[in-house]
Every structure is written in C-alpha cells, then in structure tokens.
Specification:
Length: 337
C-alpha cells in the first residue's frame, strides 16, 4: 500500500528481509485495473510508470526473496536517504522478541502479528525459543521436536498456514510435536493451555506405565489344565517376553488375553524367552480357538508400540514386533507411529 509520496519504475528502494535491509530497484509497477480492489484484482493489473498515494500497487524487483510482510518500503534518492532508510529497515528486521534457550516456536504472517503473539505469551510467562515470519514448514516441525521439554514441542501460528509437507511431518512425529493455528490470538492461547494440561496428564501416565514387550508362545502338548473359563495351559516362551494383561493373536486375529502367569506355586507378572509356565487365558476354549501345539503372538498396546520403536529390543523381540506392526497396519496404516 503506497500511503505517502510516489514511486516510479527505476526508483531505488530499501526493504526489510529476514537477513536485514537490502537495496534494489523497481523493475515493474502495476495498478489494479478499473475499480478493482488490490486483493481481488486477480490478473487484472495495468502496467504503469508511476503511482501516487494513496494506492494499492504491485511491484516487481530483483532480490525480493525473504521480504518481511508488514514492514516498510522506502524510496531513496541520495546517499544520505539510503543510509537512513537502511538503518530504519534494519531496525524493523530485528524482532523485539526475547528468545530463550527453551520455549515454544511461534509463527505469523507479519512482524506485527508475531510481536503481538509474543507479547500475550510473555504475559502468561510462556517462554519462546524461536520466532519467524511465514508459513509453518517442515523445518519448523523438526525445530519444535528438538526441544528437550515435551511441553515446548509446539508451534503456535497466528494468521498463517501450515504447508502440506509440514502436515505430513507432523503426522509422522514420534516426539509429540503439536501445531496450533488460528486467526485469533486468544484462541491460540486457549488451545495451548488445553494442550499443555492434556499433555501433562499423558506424560504422567507414560511415566507410570510399564512398557510391555512383544513375544511368541507355543502351547505345550499334554499340558491342558483347564479347557475354559479361563483356559489354563502350559506354554513355552519361544521369543520375547509375556506380561499379564497382554492380548493374544492367532493367525493375525485377537483370540483372548493372559489373565495370570504361574511357575509352580509362584505367581508372576512377567516372564522371558526360554521359560515354561502355566498361563490362564480369558476368552478362549481349548479345542476351539486354541489347541495344543499352537504358536501364538503376544500383542502390545499401540501406545507401547510407539515407545518400543525408540527402545532397544532383542533380535527375537524385534522380529515379533515387526510381525505385529504388519498385522495391525493392514487396518490402520499409521498404527504404532
């Protein structure tokens, strides 16, 4: 928007970019055709040699990459005016936002919007690690994931879009990165507070929750102690480990759940590869859903599968885990991601 003075083809101009002030020259100058508003003009623009305030115009010039939306364009005609304009543009390019070593990432379409969001976050004592202009990119998602504090793995975007590749990166995120975007700052703040509270609960549950590992068992011949309600059979753990409460799969289908594990008179919560124990299984009848000699997979909850991907497993556990992933991803391509 040309709000003061005039601008002509060939004029030297100074603008603010992400790398500071730069000088360039107006190569093309265009005004909306007829009574069209600038934002609705589409391709209806007239080439012009000069424009006068107040008017909406379109300018083409070299080196406009990285220009900061919402900053000032200045026409200069002398060394003195150029130096003054450069100093002013450099000042606009320097965001007045205090950044910390740890904090959230914020984005906006303009410098003013970014500073407004930063001000509101500051009043709520939310620290900011990174602030930038533009659409939310894949790099922003990865930057948020790099935070050591899970509660800071969030990008708060005011009045700017998230790019498709960034959405894909977000869906694949294994570190719980979050994007919160709106054209209303207070809505962003509300959603952020809600997300923080929910995330705190999830983190506490994860801290308390014991990760269960995948496994494979074989039902031993002549070791059926009870046929049903619940079935009690002798098994050998031939891969990984088993835990009370885990579901069992036969040929990829859920058939029952481990209710208890016993070795002699000792009750156990977990046992490992190579052990032979008696297990009680809810929801099955020997001779129907299961039979002696059957090999069964010991399933893991999806939330545990996400953790297991980042943990060390033995070769046999990894083999069973990959088999479980293949089974579950027949129905849900993103299971365990």
């Amino acid at each position: 928007i040309l709000h003061r003075g005039e601008i002509r083809k060939g004029d030297e101009i100074v603008i603010s970019t992400v790398n500071g002030a730069i000088c360039t020259h107006v190569k093309g100058l265009f005004s909306p055709r007829g009574m069209s508003e600038m934002r609705d003009a589409g391709d209806r623009w007239d080439d012009t040699d000069a424009a006068f305030s107040a008017a909406g115009i379109k300018i083409s010039a070299p080196s406009l990459e990285g220009v900061l939306v919402g900053t000032t364009l200045r026409v200069v005609d002398s060394l003195e005016s150029r130096q003054e304009a450069i100093e002013l543009a450099d000042g606009e390019a320097s965001l007045s936002i205090v950044l910390e070593e740890e904090g959230v990432c914020i984005k906006s379409d303009t410098v003013g919007g970014l500073e407004a969001l930063a001000k509101e976050l500051g009043e709520k004592s939310v620290s900011i690690r990174e602030a930038s202009i533009g659409k939310v990119s894949r790099r922003d998602i990865r930057s948020a994931e790099a935070s050591s504090d899970p509660l800071f793995r969030v990008i708060m975007a005011f009045n700017t879009e998230i790019l498709p590749e960034a959405k894909e990166e977000l869906e694949k995120s294994e570190l719980g990165a979050m994007h919160i975007g709106s054209e209303i700052i207070y809505r962003i703040l509300e959603e952020h507070e809600e997300w923080v509270e929910k995330r705190k609960i999830e983190l506490e549950e994860e801290r308390r929750e014991k990760v269960v590992y995948p496994g494979r068992i074989i039902i031993l011949p002549d070791h059926t102690f009870r046929v049903s309600k619940p079935a009690v059979v002798g098994v050998r753990v031939i891969a990984g480990r088993i835990h009370v409460g885990q579901g069992l799969l036969k040929e990829g289908k859920r058939i029952g759940r481990i209710k208890s594990i016993r070795s002699g008179q000792e009750s156990m919560k977990e046992t490992h590869q190579g052990s032979e124990v008696a297990v009680s299984i809810e929801g099955v009848t020997v001779g129907r859903q299961i039979s002696e000699g059957d090999a069964l997979l010991v399933d893991v909850p999806e939330s545990h599968a996400r953790k297991l991907r980042k943990m060390e497993m033995s070769a046999t556990e990894k083999e069973v885990f990959d088999e479980l992933l293949a089974i579950h991803r027949r129905e849900d391509h993103f299971w365990g991601r």
